Amino acid sequence: MKAAATTPDPSTLPGLLDLRRLEDDASVFEADVCIVGSGPAGLAVARGLAGLHLRILVVESGGLEESEATDRLSEIESVGFAREMAPRRVRNRVFGGTSESWTGRCAPFDPIDFERRDWVARSGWPISRAEVMPWLERAAPQLGISTQFDPVPDRLAGDEALRECVWQFSRGRDGYAFTQSGREFLAERALDAGLADIRVLLHATVREVLVTASGRAVEGVEVVALNGRQARIRAPLVVLAGGGIENARMLLLSRRVMGCGIGNGRDQVGRHLMDHPRGVIAAFDRTAFDAVRARYGLFRLPQPGGMQTYVRGLTLSPETQAREGLLNCAAWITEERAEDDPWEA
């Protein structure tokens, strides 16, 4: 449950701008780096560049709190496998992005996720997990998690089909609540002079990524607010941090120079979305649940900065995936409250 709080007026916070309220003569911004998206990824990039004497501008489609009008911009047509959870519920157009709705669950991809698999068409990344791990370790403090990603053995005794896997939960500045990137950034900004130099433009939805006539270099972005006010941001470097769906949408909408969209010469932008469908596969009755929870429930380990919360689950071994021609997947247990639970009263 989130505590009720008064949302500050952006006009009262230095460096926070609201496109809807800007005068016409402020319709052009100059920046060295324009970061599109203020979720965990976008703000991590902004923090990493702070103190380098760069003009950094973070562009966010939403405001400091969510609104139905802004959420409607996230509507999509979903074709194919029906999702249990609507895309709008896991894509937040608000300062802080998806960190406003996630549960803090974090885990690195497995090595097999990066590898070419004969049973998965067009699989394989040009990088390996080993190459990614140093960057995950660098990102861990931004998410409030430990760099101890695998604190327990991953193989069940006597079972070659399944492996144990582990998630850990993000820890906010207070040591307990999940990290909410936007709120924590504003709190840090008040204390860190380097972060205070980062400007944020709210209620600014990217309409097009601007490129040179050759299409080989970026020039900035054009943004628009729901009330029609427009602006152009000139920047030689643009970071798209809007998530898998929005990043692709921005590239495909940018057709002024390249008719098929930026980077889409081979018709691959927006394809191969790595979604994560889920569903209930089993249930345990009360007589068995305590034993299951003892092994696969939450557990805590001491880590620098405080106790870190983990939870175990089960995943298919790479050998099982190859033998059965399956994709990687995982299972975990969760508790459901009874209808007559006093907590629900």
TrEMBL record:
Pfam families xrefs: DAO (PF01266)
Keyword terms, alphabetized: FAD, Flavoprotein, Oxidoreductase
Protein name: GMC family oxidoreductase
Recorded family membership: Belongs to the GMC oxidoreductase family.
Species in which this protein is naturally found: Endobacter medicaginis
Domain FAD dependent oxidoreductase, first and last residues per copy: 32-244
GO MF annotations, alphabetized: oxidoreductase activity
Cofactor: FAD
